[in-house]
Each structure stands twice: as structure tokens, then as C-alpha cells.
Amino acid sequence: MTCLTMPAASGGAGVRTTDEVTIALRITRAHGPPVPVFPQCAAHTDMKHDRDFDPNYGSAVELMPGLRRLTARNPGPFTFLGTNTYLLGTSRLAVVDPGPADEAHVENILKAASGAPIEAIVVSHTHVDHSPAARRLRDKTGAQIVGCGVHRAARALMENEINPLDASGDKEYTPDRQLREGDVFSAAGISLHAVETPGHTANHLCFALGGEDVLLSADHVMGWSTSIVAPPDGSMRDYMASIDKLLDRREQIYLPGHGGVINDALSHVRDLKRHRLGREAAVLRELAAAPLTIAQIVASLYADVDPALHRAAGLSVFAHLEDLAERGLVAASPALALNATFRLRSS
Asked: Which of 110, 171, 177 is nearest to 148 (CA)?
């Protein structure tokens, strides 16, 4: 398999700085409903996002020889224009992230296979837009499910805490083989190297394509948006450590779980790290003036965002505050929780 440089989006119309994009922006496409941009893309940073993406619903798009992308028709605020399923191989196939429990998408995967046997179903993490179709596809093909472990939170629930994203976890998923850091899985004439990247979820994996300059980055790094990191399922400290791990790797082409190919990926990851550190600094500046609740911080940092989306933005702010509290920079009263009051710790 020879790696090809992925072409940049034509025209540049979909590339905007986040200062030019507000949460109220809706991307209207003839092939689907308007999709709201998620709050982590709000203003106050110079992070660039590329939303020039055609999902080509129902068609497998060749990205390079032996690697195709098939996008599920599940657009939404967390999924952009749909979940990307990747088909690896030619005469034999491995399917990466088969997507939601959508029979039509499973049938599109089988149609794209055109009779080629599916030898493996590979799963990056257990959100309901990525893993449930693995069981349906295994039932139809007999292929083994390999990849991440079972769904788990990054930490235990605190007293009286409710997991706001509990319904997004696929708790029925069980792999036939779990991959861990450094494991190499071979099927369909290709090899995938597992890279543990917790943060978005505790069990998140990326996969490096053997012999190529390509990383299947799933939801850890995407071009259309930053990833949501929401405790207790996610952890900002883990996420930032995983970002640093990717910066120590060599891959320059990322194939994300949503949206288009990311070229010059390490530059994008460096920008992503700066974006997250900038958001952290903004939270600390807010607290330098006075103790605040998450709602008060969000009202200031996301002042130009539709208030209906402030609750979702608060999950991202909470992830930063949880990380800052663990590092001893912030204290919460009466306890670390979404409804706490936060203040800077005195030095």
C-alpha cells in the first residue's frame, strides 16, 4: 500500500478561524438537516477548523489504495455530518469503527465490501455513534471484534453526581480481543498499531497504519472541531497527555472519526494543544477576579453563543476545572461538582 498525500479542501470556503464561527452557526447541506456547531468551537481562540466535507452518504470514497471511507447518515452536534467508517484492504477487508446501530449503514458496509470477506471489525472507543454496529456486522459476517476494552468512565461518580453523557456510552460492547498500547493487529493484509489515547473516553484508541504515514485518530483529533471532553467519562488531564503522546509520533496524515482528512497533522495537534491551554488560561483569568460557578464562567467565555448551548459548554469548562483542581490550582466549594463555586487556590 502506497501512501498518498491527501488533497486539501478546494476553495478554502470551509476553513474558518474559530473567531469567525459562533455556536449559532448552522451548516446547511442539501443531503441532510442543519447541523449545529458544537460549543467547543466557540470564539476566543485562533484554532482553525475545516468544515468543507462531503459525506457522500452511501458511497465508499477511496482515500488511498486499499483504504476507503464510508460515512454514516447520523449528522448531529457531536457527530458533524456523520461517523466515518474505514474499510481497509482490497480482496479481504478490515472495518474500522462500523458506526451506530443503523441497519442501513451496516448494509452499506456490506455493499461496499462487494463480496470481499470482512476479517475483522476494529473499534476505537465505545460511544454509540462508533461501536454498536460492530455486533450487527459480526452477526452477518462472523468477523471478530478487536480494539478498545469495554466502556468505562475515567473516574468513579462522586456523591450525588449524575453522568450527563451516560446515554452516549455503549455498555453492551465486548471485544473478542482487546488491544492495548503497542499491540499490533494484522488482518486483510494490513497491520494496525494500537495507540492508547484516553481523554475523550477512558478506553479511546487510535490506530497507526503499518508502513504508512497515517493515523486513524477517531475522536481524539478531528479537523471539523475539537473533541468534547466531559467528566466523568472523559478526563482533560488524560486528554492532554494523549495529545503530547501524538506529538512524539511521526504520522502526518490523520483519518478522524468525523469530518475530512487532516493533512500536516502534527501542526494541527500543536494548534489543538495551544487551544486547550488557551482555554485553561481563560478560565484562570476569570477566577482571578472572583470565585465563580461554571454557569458564570460560561456566560463570560461564551457570551456570543446561543444560551441554549451553555449547558454543553459547561461540560468542557468542568473538564478544565477538574484538571486544575487535581493540579492544586483551583479549589471547589462545597465539593468538586458541576454546581460548585470555584476559586483560585492561594499560593
From this structure: 177
